[in-house]
Specification:
disordered C terminus, TIM Barrel, four-stranded parallel beta sheet, single chain, binds iron/sulfur cluster, alpha/beta
Length: about 350
C-alpha cells in the first residue's frame, strides 16, 4: 500500500467527507499493511506516582496539589515502591511507568537516586519514566540542558519515555488548559533529543475539550514530521495513543462547556491517526477511557495494540475514567474481537517471563 504524508485538506476530506465505514476500513487496511499478523499486542505494567505535588495546576487535573496542602501531598517512599514492584512481578509484569507532578524542589539528583534505587532492587525492571513536561521541568530546576538531563536519567536507569503531557500540541490550547506546563516546542524538543539518543518513546493526544479539528490534525502532523526526523535505526515513536479528555469534577469542566465524544468520533480518530501516522508502527487503544466494547471495534479501525492492563492508574482515573481490566479480561477481549493476544515488552519485543528473574 502506498503510504505518504497527507495534507490538511486531504485529512479534512477523509475525516469529514467520506462515509465513516470507508474511513475505518482505510485505517484497518493500513494496520494490516504494516502488521499483517492478526495479533493484537498487550502488556502488563504498573503506574507508580512518585509525587502529586505540582506547580503546573492543569485545569483538567484532579490529581495534583500544592506543596502547602500537607493533608494531600505525598512523595512515595522506597518501601512502597518495593512492595508495588513485588506485586507487579507476581502479576507477571516487568515494567513500571513512573509519573508525577512538576515538584518545585526536586532536581536531577532526586530522580537519579530514585531510578538507581529501583534498578538496584530489581535489575531486570524496565523503567518507562517521566514525560516531556517532567524532563523539561527537571532540566529547568537543575539548570541543565535537555540532553544533559536525559543522559543523566538514562545513566541512572531510564529505559524509555512515555509520551505524556502532550494533550493538544497547540500553544493556544495549552495556554487555556495548562498554562503552567511546558509549551509545544518544549515537548517536541525533549522527544527529538530522546530519539537522537536512541531512547524509545510513545506519543499521545488528549482530545475532545476546547481544541478544533484542525488543531488535532496539526498535532498529528507535528508527530509525523518529528518521526521523519529520527535517525535511522533508532525506535523514535513506537506507538501513538489518543484518548478523550476526562473532565469529571475538574476545573476545566467548570470553566469551559465540554461535550462528550461519541463512539463514532473516537473510531474516526483512531482511523485518521493510523492514516496520518503511517510512519509510527503501532496505534494503541485507550481501553481505560473508552471501555472494552468500543476498544474491540477500534481494533478493526486501525489500532493493533491494547496497551497495558495498567495496575494502579491514578491520574486519568481521578477525572472520571472508571474502566478496569485484568490479565484474563485483556486476553478475552482481544479474542472476542477476533484477534490473537500477543504479550509484549515496552519496546514491542515478545514478552519474556525470564526478565522477571533478578528480584533481590
Ligand atoms: S497533569 Fe501533570 S503537570 Fe498537569 S497538574 Fe496534573 S500532575 Fe501537574
Amino acid at each position: 500500500m502506498d503510504q505518504q504524508d497527507i495534507t490538511l485538506q486531504e485529512a479534512f476530506f477523509l475525516y469529514d467527507a467520506i462515509p465513516v465505514q470507508e474511513l475505518l476500513s482505510l485505517g484497518n487496511d493500513i494496520r494490516f499493511a504494516k502488521i499483517p499478523q492478526s495479533r493484537v499486542s498487550w502488556q502488563i505494567d504498573r503506574n507508580i506516582n512518585y509525587t502529586n505535588v505540582c506547580i503546573s495546576a492543569c485545569k483538567f487535573c484532579n490529581f495534583h496539589c500544592t506543596l502547602s496542602q500537607k493533608d494531600r501531598s505525598f512523595t512515595t517512599g522506597i518501601e512502597e515502591y518495593k512492595s508495588k514492584i513485588d506485586q507487579l512481578l507476581e502479576a507477571g509484569g516487568n515494567q513500571v511507568l513512573l509519573q508525577g507532578g512538576l515538584h518545585p524542589h526536586y532536581g536531577i539528583e532526586f530522580y537519579e537516586d530514585l531510578l538507581k534505587s529501583l534498578k538496584e532492587y530489581c535489575p531486570s525492571l524496565k523503567l518507562n519514566a517521566l514525560g516531556p513536561p517532567e524532563v523539561s521541568h527537571i532540566a529547568k530546576v537543575s539548570k541543565l540542558s535537555i540532553k544533559e538531563t536525559l543522559e543523566r536519567l538514562r545513566n541512572a536507569g531510564l529505559d524509555s519515555l512515555p509520551g505524556a503531557g502532550a494533550e493538544i500540541l497547540s500553544d493556544r490550547v495549552r495556554k487555556l488548559i495548562s498554562p503552567g506546563k511546558p509549551d509545544t516546542c518544549s515537548w517536541l524538543e525533549v522527544m527529538e533529543q530522546a530519539h537522537k539518543m536512541g531512547i524509545g518513546t510513545t506519543a499521545t493526544m488528549v482530545y475532545g475539550h476546547i481544541e478544533t479539528l484542525e488543531e488535532r490534525i496539526r498535532h498529528l502532523f507535528l508527530l509525523r514530521d518529528l518521526q521523519h526526523k529520527k535517525p535511522s535505526g533508532v525506535p523514535g515513536f513506537t506507538a501513538f495513543i489518543a484518548w478523550p479528555m476526562q473532565v469529571k469534577g475538574t476545573l476545566l469542566e467548570k470553566t469551559f462547556p465540554i461535550g462528550t465524544i461519541s463512539a463514532v468520533e473516537h473510531l474516526k480518530m483512531i482511523a485518521i491517526s493510523r492514516i496520518i501516522l503511517y510512519n509510527i508502527p503501532h496505534i494503541q487503544v485507550s481501553w481505560l477511557t473508552i471501555g472494552k466494547e468500543l476498544a474491540k471495534i477500534a481494533l478493526h479501525s486501525g489500532a493493533d495494540d491494547m496497551g497495558s492492563i495498567m495496575m494502579e492508574e491514578n491520574v486519568v482515573s481521578s477525572a472520571g475514567a472508571n474502566h478496569r481490566i485484568n490479565k484474563e479480561k485483556m486476553v478475552k477481549t482481544i479474542k472476542e474481537a477476533g484477534f490473537v493476544p500477543w504479550q509484549r515488552n515496552q519496546d514491542y519485543s515478545p514478552y519474556n517471563p525470564g526478565l522477571q528473574e533478578g528480584l533481590s
